[in-house]
Amino acid sequence: MTSGQFEYVDPRQIIVNRDTRQRKELKGIPELRDSISRIGLIHPPVITREMVLRTGERRLTAILDLGWTSIPIQWADQMTEADAQRLELEENIKRVDIDWPDQCRAVLAYHELQLAENEKWGQVDTANALGMSQQLVGAQLNVARELRSGNKKVTEAQKLSTAIGIVARTKERKAQAES
After folding, report:
1. Rg (CA), the chain
2. Contact 19, 54 (CB under 8 A)
3. Cα 134 to Cα 126: distance, rounded to the nearest angstrom
4. How far is 35 from 61, CA to CA, in rounded Å?
5. Under a CB-based contact definition with an 8 Å cutoff, are residues 123 and 137 in contact?
6. In this predicted model, what pLDDT tens digit does every residue of 71-100 receive, in sequence order?
7. How far is CA 41 from the centre of its chain?
8. Could you point out which of 61, 63, 86, 121 has its C-alpha 20 to 30 Å from the C-alpha of 149?
9. What's residue 76's pLDDT?
């Protein structure tokens, strides 16, 4: 299906057959564009030797918005139309977002690694480096610390928003008890 061979091409030469694409609405392009501009292209698009896109339309759109003139791609060789549909569907439905507790822990781990290297590193730096709001990073850091401490209410929360609320109420109670 895919060749395992990577090369660089001009993204403006890649043909997108919009009518045959499974994803009808391209969401999250500004966030993806920001991510690619900050840390680069992690996963290259897959195209045919005829320069037809098979996977990665959102990435390609973000790259074109950034004005890149050369990108890595992977070739899709000897692919029937059914193979192409399966590949696109596989990429769109098999990928799984990280769940909120793991994301909070990962943000905290990144923040602590940076802080260990630079004592002036702060929450704003973490937010900027990850392309997230300072408010969200602060909330995730607080939640991750509560997860680490074993706060049962936080570990049992079904949603990040619920965990954030629990942590906020816990901090309020501690502040009231200290005053």
Report:
1. 21
2. no
3. 8
4. 13
5. yes
6. 999 998 777 778 878 878 887 787 777 899
7. 11
8. 121
9. 86
DSSP β-bridge partners for residue 72: 8
Token pair, residue 109, equals 């781990």
How far are the Cα atoms of 63, 74, 88, 98, 129 from residue 53, in angstroms, in the given order?
14, 10, 10, 27, 30
- Give which of 159, 165, 32 is closest to 99, Cα–Cα: 159
Q: Where are the alpha helices (DSSP H) in the chain?
A: 29-39, 57-66, 81-94, 100-117, 123-130, 134-149, 152-155, 160-178
Lookup: tokens for 10 = 């001009």
- Model pLDDT for residues 53-64, shown as the tens digit of each residue: 998 999 999 999
CA geometry: angle 43, 6, 13, nearest 5 deg: 85
- β-bridge mates for residue 76, sequence order: 2, 48
Are 111 and 39 spatial neighbours (Cβ–Cβ below 8 Å)?
no
Residues 6+ apart with CB under 8 A from 36: 59, 62, 63, 66
pLDDT tier at 9, thresholds 50, 70, 90: very high
Q: What SS3 class is residue 7? A: strand
CA distance 56 to 46: 7
